Amino acid sequence: MSEPATVDTPLKKLVGDKTAKALATHLDLHTAGDLVYHFPRRYDERGEHTDIRALDVGEQVTVLAQVQRTAVRPMRQRRGNLLEVTVGDGSGGVLTLTFFGNQAWRERELRPGRWGLFAGKVTEFRGKRQLNGPEYVLLGEGGDGEAAVSDEIEEFAGALIPVYPAAAAVPTWVIARCVRVVLDTFTPPEDPLPGTVRASRKLVGLGTALTEIHRPSSKEELHRARRRLKWDEAFAVQLTLVQRKHRAADWPARPRPARPGGLLDAFDARLPYELTAGQRDVGVEIAADLAAPHPMHRLLQGEVGSGKTVVALRAMLQVVDAGGQAALLAPTEVLAAQHYRGMLDLLGPLGRAGELGSAEHATRVELVTGSLGAAARRRALGEVASGAAGIVLGTHALLYEGVDFADLGLVVVDEQHRFGVEQRDALRSKADQPPHVLVMTATPIPRTVAMTVYGDLEVSTLSQLPRGRSPIASHVVPAAEKPAYLDRAWRRLREEVTAGHQAYVVCPRIGEGPASDEEPPPVDDNGRRPPLAVTEVAPLLAEGPLHGLRIGVLHGRLPADEKDAVMRSFAAGDLDVLVATTVIEVGVDVPNATVMIVLDADRFGVSQLHQLRGRVGRGSAAGLCLLVSEAAEGSSARERLDAVASTSDGFKLAELDLEQRREGDVLGATQSGHRSHLRLLSLRRDTELIRDARAEAITLVEDDPELTRNPALAASVAALVDEDRAEYLEKG
Predict the structure, then answer these.
(1) 411 touches 427 (CB < 8 A)
(2) Which of 88, 334, 517, 641 is 20 to 30 A away from residue 215, measured at CA?
(3) pTM over 0.90
(4) Which helix (H) or strand (E) holds 285?
(5) Does domain 472-517+527-647 fall into CATH 3.90.1010.10?
């Protein structure tokens, strides 16, 4: 009898060296625990079909389908035959499987009527979707070649067929066979969940859940298994966040209370407009946080143009009034420079200490970016180090060694999703005591995401737009199906320019040269043309549909002074059209720009598109955003664009974005750089479960803050949310 396997047993002891190496190399699975927690992606039901029409080109898929017909024809360019096998899903969707070379045995094996699992990458040839040389396993009895797959068929004896996240070299049926081998001798770890929680929430035991998730005896048992394992994930995350929030309450921080008659009061008195009710309410929350003896850790979210910057500036002035400094970290030099100019304009004499005409108790505002000249940099860093600069704005250049603060009291992180955790933490570490932290984002965050990812932050939301902001109409332009619509889009842009307005044209790529962080790779390995590029599109527009208009170009590879000059020209009205990449995605504010045309819009994410279109309609004239795409009607890419065009509600779009992205990306798995066992939890679908897990976590941590009386639970939390993940969650 085999020795019992535990979560730590190396896979090579259980499935052999060759298979273990493939699992490790292609799927990062090394131990029995890794494999047992590698849950099926979905379950196909024998006799049921996979919806082939919903498959996306370029996707690595495993489909359950039935062979409809086979055809053999000689190849044109080389010797030998091509076998084409048409498989269907029973509802009209078909997929062509192609096999090169003389393979008569395969033709006999893949005869009409046979059901199988077929795995490969979806490509398109002459309008037909196909899998080239796919791996497959046939289901059912009899037929030539059956002996070769008999081992795999044993994995699919039940009605529900597990389909695993797989790799080309390790198809789902190989994983299923390995899971069976491991489960036959697997001893599950001690159930870490307190018995009281398990009973009150009606959760099955861990061992039962791990068996049923892989080899479900019924749909009901599968549901119970998934619920238990989701609970473990949610509970681990919530315990981590609640523990850290509990500890943070004891951290010392220097209070920065408001000072009557100070800079903040003077600033409010000279504001040229009235704050919205939302800005005032959030301002009160932040003011109270800053006055507390432990660090503020607050997330400020609001739609594009909701006035987050003014709220942040008021918080910065409160800290300066209390004798400290405030730093704002922006993701691009364009945005940092714009914040700098905007804040100087808003502050007026209050931001020009030491200059002629400055206010009596003024401070200084300094800009620190990587492109500063040596002399300007020395001067700016001296102002920061001495404390003369109360407000410091910059890019990641603020993080470099040699940038020292006299008394850093507040860190404001703008567009936090554009920064890595380590970058944000590096700025925070420049203070002697933990500074207060305000994280801003214009990407609306669904409540469950905020509760799960930002559970240790207080969340403030600005939902009200300031007076004078105009609505934005959005439409999809199907360039492939209706080229005349694209012609009309360019005419519409010219009409806006003739009316005295300005326009943006956005492309997903810069053009020739090394790849940039702001663009996708230029080569598409699914046979599609490369994404359109700024440097290629701009001259074509100048010679063609936008001939005679004043066109500027902006992208991340331009020198900083050139980028700044282009933005100044556009803001001053000296350019009619700005052809740009996503460098304009955040913070760019030109009220006279009323129309945006996004080329290859399907190459952008939902949140990006929502951010981009927020650049128009910032003045009194209505905004127009045209999303140009060659994506076919009914494709997931086209549906995504239709959804963006149908609503300006950022929270609805955030839900859609969440639905379409991998949960691991949202939870930070890809940013932490480590494997995580957070596999099943859906922030969109499991709202109630997450809420219940948080309630249980609060109760447990209040009674046992460090889980010393629950060592198995503490170990489970450490495994599910390792230290890197815990730090990611803590740093926000």
Answers:
(1) yes
(2) 88
(3) no
(4) helix 277-290
(5) no
